[in-house]
Amino acid sequence: MALKLSVLDQSVACVGRGQDESIRNTVALAEHCEALGYNRFWLSEHHSLPTIVGTAPEVLMAAIAARTQRIRIGSAGVMLPHYSPFKVAEQFRVLDALAPGRIDLGVGRAPGSDQRTALLLNPDPRSSQHFPQQVAQLSAWISGEAVAEGVQALPMSGTKPDLWMLGSSGYGAQLAGHFGMPYAFAHFITDGEGTKEALDLYRHTFKPGLIEKPHATVCVWALAADTEEQAWHLFASRERARVNRQRGQFGPLLPPDEARGGYTASEQAYVDDLRRKAMVGTGPQVLAKLQALADDLGIDEVVVITWTWDPAAQRRSYELLAKAV
After folding, report:
1. Alpha-carbon span 215 to 174, nearest angstrom
2. What is the DSSP letter of 11?
3. pLDDT per residue over 131-153, tens digit each?
4. From residue 16, how far is each of 9, 21, 275, 284, 296 by CA, in Å?
5. Taking a C-beta distance cutoff of 8 angstroms, is the pair 322, 36 a contact?
6. CA–CA separation, 306 vs 237, rounded Å?
7. Cα separations in angstroms, 310 against 60, 122, 181, 241, 316
8. How many of the other CB atoms lie within 10 Å of CB of 58?
């Protein structure tokens, strides 16, 4: 069976372009990926981060729903400790009314921001401690069960969003197993570290709940170009962003020509390791790496995230992967 490919986009800011353009590029990319046959298009949530300007996945999902017909649309994810589970359920029931049977509601515990910003979103500093209870409440609201007497999350219809657990550690894996939820591991955050262990933990702890048997995917950073040399050239923008993050510096993505060089010895060692693990190359080369990862993890779908300074290069990368499949 051919590997199913999906997309995660974060609306990355780029030097020389307005942040509003990044948002519009995300919507255009969703239309492009639907035409290419991708299975899902997911959107992340970050706050007050100069590199990533996708702050409201539910708003972007509505825009994408209005411009697509087939592709599943999802959040990867809603950072649930910031919000009321009832309000999130209402938002996603509205989205499901706009795109019936096409909505994925991925939730996570991480703040998607620094602690100061998190407190502006929710003044309760202990909100993340209530995450399991929030997930249970959200599941009940989404399914149409009345959590509070006489109160329902509307609109009701013949379909409902699919609830996913997102994570980059064993915590989310165990919680997904406990609730019997689909699970997505953020491979791109850890550079793969802990992926197999998290999926094994998920499968070991799984008990039927929202779904009858375990269903997992991983979100992987990958970049394809017409030649391997070109792909590594484009990768320089991502490479620089990762080094700058190690320094505690966040900003718009630099063009590849401006992103190269200037590393300390320890940073060069980090870059060498990053390149060794990176899924970069031609379409067939990257697909082979993704397929090998999927085979090793026992999954049949991979969610691909790609950062490039030039949106045309990002679209081309997804074209080449789709063609390779």
Report:
1. 13
2. -
3. 999 999 999 999 988 777 788 99
4. 20, 10, 26, 32, 40
5. yes
6. 11
7. 21, 35, 36, 15, 10
8. 17
What DSSP string describes 89-144? Answer: HHHHHHHHHHSTT-EEEEEE-S-SS-HHHHHHH-S-TTGGGGHHHHHHHHHHHHHT
What is the span of the domain harbouring residue 40? 4-324
Q: What is the pLDDT of residue 282?
A: 98
For residue 227, name the pLDDT band (cuts at 50, 70, 90): very high
CA–CA separation, 260 and 238 (whole Å): 10
Which tokens in the block code for residue 49?
């981060």
Distance CA 41, CA 76 (A): 9
| Per-residue pLDDT tens over the stretch 288-312 | 999 999 999 999 999 999 999 999 9
Annotate 18-44 with DSSP letters as a single string: -HHHHHHHHHHHHHHHHHHT-SEEEE-
What pLDDT shows up at residue 1?
A: 62
- For the chain, the domain total comes to 1
Collect all residues with Cβ–Cβ distance below 8 Å to 175 and sequence separation of at least 6.
131, 132, 135, 165, 167, 181
176: its two tokens: 């997904």
Angle, alpha carbons 91-147-120 (nearest 5°)? 50
pTM check: above 0.85? yes
What's the pLDDT score for residue 148? Answer: 77
DSSP states of 235-263 = HHHHHHHHHHHHTT---PBPPHHHH----
- Asked whether the bond before 100 is cis by omega within 30 degrees of 0, the reply is no
Mean pLDDT of 107-127: 90
Sorted by sequence, the CB contacts under 8 Å of residue 230 that are 6+ apart come out as none
Which CATH number is 238's domain given?
3.20.20.30
Quick one: which of 165, 175, 179 has its CA closest to 201? Answer: 175
Q: Which of 186, 161, 165, 164 is nearest to 174 (CA)?
A: 165
